[in-house]
């Protein structure tokens, strides 16, 4: 009983350590990947224990590597902006996992059993602990690569990356050759009671494990430039591999087994004395070539890193920031063949991407649950990103604007990204996303540019402001004189939106999905209750009303009165109300079907009213004061 509890405790610690490091990365995607890694082990444990088999243990480990790497890669890369470094790094790990997994799977099926599990399988808690430790192995070894792939810029292709790739491939080749040499040695019946000491095994008693440690060192080097802060803790991957192989399994167990089989042989004692367990680092350090490589690696670590320069912005805690807007000098990036420039927050990124003489505006929300709306011509390149290509008409200055609206009761927030064209006095919605399980306002933000853009950040970003939840604008970068102005109905896509809304509404009428079928100056209405009152509502009136508002085609009620009326000056309400109520009788109740252009248009009005929403209002006018 005591041993069973200890096994469960060790299992819990293994999971806690791996998941704790994942939490320190600050990336929810990594936390999800680590959970996937452990869940796969725990699910596989059930049939393994029932049938008392370990034959698919190693194969499951390889499948887990492939699963978590594929998951993070798929979630982090878009069809528009595939990160070559991330794809290469993921491919390296999957190549290794496929090779090693298939090798071990075939080997155990040929041998019939893995003797390490002979005393482990009968105990459910010990066997469970073994599977959990494999989840920890997958998690900690792959986490630096997963974090690099999931980072804001993905894996950076610099000199350090290619050094890491060389180290990885060297380790992989050593591991493959060592396994091949040992397999060939064992296949020869004459070597049944002998130990291998030729080829790579003449230089190391465990060259396959040396290759394993080396390749994970290469993975860490390739990942290094993409990490920051606590994420550097994930670089324990090669150290963890070394400790695991040397002191837990692998080397330790094989050395004990070797002594039992051949310890009485003088030739084996000489082999132990003359051949290092992994590698002779003493001899290696004496090599001039290694010294040169070491100096080159260290200098590269200082010379290369992120291919992006960013300037963190000071965000006030009060009032809470719900938006950020920045004026950008677009012509300064046109001369570059490639480049990015934009603004980012703790949950979003809105930027210009210049590639092959085309400038795209990209809005990314890495933790997005769904896309709510997007502008005309904007292409959905993934569940997390939307891109829109600028046409030939370019202005010297444009503005990027990110805003949010949260619902604490339903525990979600929506983010919208916009571009503003000052000469046209028009806004362009790029996209609006919903993020479930999150309601925090903007608490971190930065402006950034690619390093190949020569101008200073201060030259590119004229001024940057944050918007508080009380409506106040606060200058956070440079000294803009005029506060931002957000024209409420200046939609660049207004004509397109009118056509789209009209098609949607007409189809609903044709399919008998609405009774608001009478057309009136751009909207549709239905008289729900008549009135004999001769007083007509005028645009200049202040009206007292009962009402209920909901999103067309849904049952989502975003606002309504209960027992008491509400009073508003009609001229201050949305255009749809003004058009719909003007000329109606006091006492009448009408249903107004309002296209987005007469409602809140592309504005992020509230978390329950996404941009471009067609609205329905049921309104009863109780009183109108002229």
What's the SSE blueprint?
Elements lengths: L1 H23 L3 H23 L6 H20 L7 H28 L12 H27 L8 H29 L19 H18 L12 H12 L2 H12 L3 H9 L6 H5 L2 H16 L4 E6 L7 E9 L8 E8 L3 E7 L2 E7 L5 E5 L4 E2 L4 E5 L7 E11 L4 E10 L4 E11 L8 E6 L6 H4 E8 L4 E5 L16 H17 L7 E3 L2 E7 L12 E10 L5 E4 L5 E4 L5 H7 L7 E6 L20 E11 L1
Antiparallel strand pairs: 1-12, 2-9, 2-13, 3-4, 3-12, 4-5, 5-8, 6-11, 7-8, 9-10, 10-11, 13-14, 15-16, 16-20, 17-18, 17-19, 17-21, 20-21
Helix pairs in contact: 1-2, 1-5, 2-3, 2-5, 3-4, 3-5, 4-5, 4-6, 5-7, 5-8, 6-7, 7-8
In CATH, what is the class of the largest domain?
A: Mainly Beta
Strand content: 15-25%
H/I helix tally: 15
- Overall radius of gyration: 32 Å
Widest sheet, order of strands: 1-12-3-4-5-8-7
Q: What's the helical proportion of residues?
A: 25-40%
In whole angstroms, how far apart are the ends?
A: 84 Å
Mean pLDDT, nearest integer?
Answer: 86
Number of strands: 21
Structural class assignment: alpha+beta
Total domains: 4
Shape: elongated
CATH architecture of the largest domain: Sandwich
Which fold name fills CATH's third level, the topology of the largest domain? Answer: Jelly Rolls
The biggest sheet, with number of strands, parallel, antiparallel or mixed sense and barrel status, is: 7 strands, antiparallel
Low-confidence stretches: 283-306
């Amino acid at each position: 009983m005591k041993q069973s509890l200890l096994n469960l405790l060790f299992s819990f610690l293994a999971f806690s350590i791996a998941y704790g490091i994942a939490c320190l990365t600050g990336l929810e995607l990594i936390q999800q990947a680590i959970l996937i890694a452990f869940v796969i082990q725990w699910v596989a444990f059930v049939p393994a224990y029932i049938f008392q088999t370990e034959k698919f243990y190693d194969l499951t480990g390889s499948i887990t590597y492939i699963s978590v790497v594929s998951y993070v890669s798929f979630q982090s890369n878009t069809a528009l902006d595939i990160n070559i470094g991330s794809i290469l790094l993921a491919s390296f790990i999957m190549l290794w996992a496929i090779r090693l997994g298939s090798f071990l799977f075939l080997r155990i099926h040929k041998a019939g059993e893995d003797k390490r599990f002979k005393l482990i399988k009968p105990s459910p808690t010990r066997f469970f602990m073994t599977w959990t430790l494999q989840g920890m192995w997958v998690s900690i070894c792959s986490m630096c690569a997963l974090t690099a792939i999931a980072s804001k810029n993905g894996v950076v292709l610099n000199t350090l990356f290619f050094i890491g790739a060389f180290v990885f491939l060297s380790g992989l080749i050593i591991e493959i050759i060592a396994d091949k040499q040992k397999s060939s040695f064992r296949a020869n019946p004459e070597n049944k009671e002998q130990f291998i000491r030729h080829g790579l095994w003449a230089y190391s008693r465990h060259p396959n494990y040396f290759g394993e440690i080396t390749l994970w060192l290469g993975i860490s080097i390739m990942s290094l430039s993409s990490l920051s802060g606590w994420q550097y803790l994930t670089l324990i991957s090669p150290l963890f591999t070394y400790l695991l192989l040397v002191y837990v399994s692998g080397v330790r167990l094989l050395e004990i087994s070797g002594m039992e089989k051949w310890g009485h042989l003088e030739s084996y004692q000489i082999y132990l004395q003359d051949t290092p367990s992994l590698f002779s680092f003493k001899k290696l350090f004496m090599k001039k070539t290694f010294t040169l490589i070491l100096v080159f690696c260290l200098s590269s670590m200082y010379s290369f890193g992120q291919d992006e320069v960013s300037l963190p912005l000071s965000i006030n805690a009060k009032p809470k920031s719900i938006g950020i807007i920045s004026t950008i000098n677009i012509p300064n990036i046109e001369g570059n063949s490639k480049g990015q420039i934009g603004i980012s927050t703790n949950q979003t990124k809105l930027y210009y991407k210049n590639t092959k003489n085309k400038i795209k505006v990209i809005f990314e929300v890495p933790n997005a649950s769904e896309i709510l709306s997007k502008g005309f011509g904007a292409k959905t390149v993934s569940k997390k990103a939307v891109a829109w290509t600028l046409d030939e008409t370019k202005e010297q200055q444009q503005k990027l604007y990110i805003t949010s609206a949260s619902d604490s009761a339903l525990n979600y927030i929506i983010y919208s990204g916009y571009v503003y064209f000052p000469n046209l006095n028009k806004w362009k919605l790029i996209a609006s996303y919903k993020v479930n399980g999150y309601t925090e306002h903007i608490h971190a933000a930065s402006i950034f540019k690619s390093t190949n853009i020569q101008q200073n950040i201060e030259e590119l970003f004229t001024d940057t402001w944050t918007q508080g939840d009380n409506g106040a604008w606060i200058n956070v970068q440079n000294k803009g004189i005029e506060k931002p102005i957000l024209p409420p109905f200046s939609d660049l896509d207004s004509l397109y939106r009118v056509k789209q809304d009209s098609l949607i509404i007409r189809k609903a009428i044709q399919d008998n999905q609405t009774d608001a079928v009478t057309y009136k100056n751009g909207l549709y209405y239905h008289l729900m209750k008549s009135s004999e009152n001769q007083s007509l509502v005028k645009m200049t009136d202040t009206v007292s009303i009962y009402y209920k508002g909901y999103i067309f085609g849904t049952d989502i009620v975003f606002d309504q009165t209960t027992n008491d009326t509400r009073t508003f000056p009609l001229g201050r309400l949305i255009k749809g109300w003004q058009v719909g109520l003007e000329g109606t009788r006091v006492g009448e109740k009408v249903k107004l079907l309002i296209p987005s252009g007469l409602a809140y248009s592309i504005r992020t009005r509230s978390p329950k009213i996404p941009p471009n929403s067609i609205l329905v209002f049921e309104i009863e006018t109780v009183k109108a004061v002229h």
